[in-house]
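User: Please predict the structure of the protein below. I'd like the answer in structure-token form so I can feed it into my own downstream comparison script.

Assistant: Understood. Taking the following sequence of 176 residues as input:
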Amino acid sequence: MSTIKIGVITASDRASAGIYEDISGVAIQDTMKDYLKSEHEIVYRCIPDNQDTIEETMIELCDREGCCLVVTTGGTGPAKRDVTPEATENVCEKMMPGFGELMRSVSLKYVPTAILSRQSAGIRGKSLIINLPGKPKSIRECLDAVFPAVPYCIDLIDGPYLECNEEVIKAFRPKQ
């Protein structure tokens, strides 16, 4: 059986230049370790907020690395350099708007500025791409909300079977 690969992309000019530590990318990796019982390998990239670079990195992780799940952080706000959702839309065959809707509704319980976030998700081949906000606390809140649907979504696109640590998060799969 081949190794399950999870892609993590941090889109940040400053983190990619080494101006500050990428705590957001680390937060995603830590969350995946908490959630997943399945053996998995993290394929991590920290890149600038540049749409072409983001698109190329998503394509690399989905098509060449074979990541069934690619989770991004950064670039989802309204600022000029925030282009992660546009990159996601350009590389995906299908957009999954329910992910963004749920993440924003959860984040609104904590901050009124959640309406400024453009989190989204989409399908590229056998990969699910999820765009998360940049703050580690928000990352966990958003993943806690959407992750129960992630393993079943990956089943539906012919990806590997993801087994969750039920003490941390319960995956929902309809009864067969």
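That's the full token string. The domain at 4-156 is CATH 3.40.980.10 (Molybdenum Cofactor Biosythetic Enzyme; Chain A).
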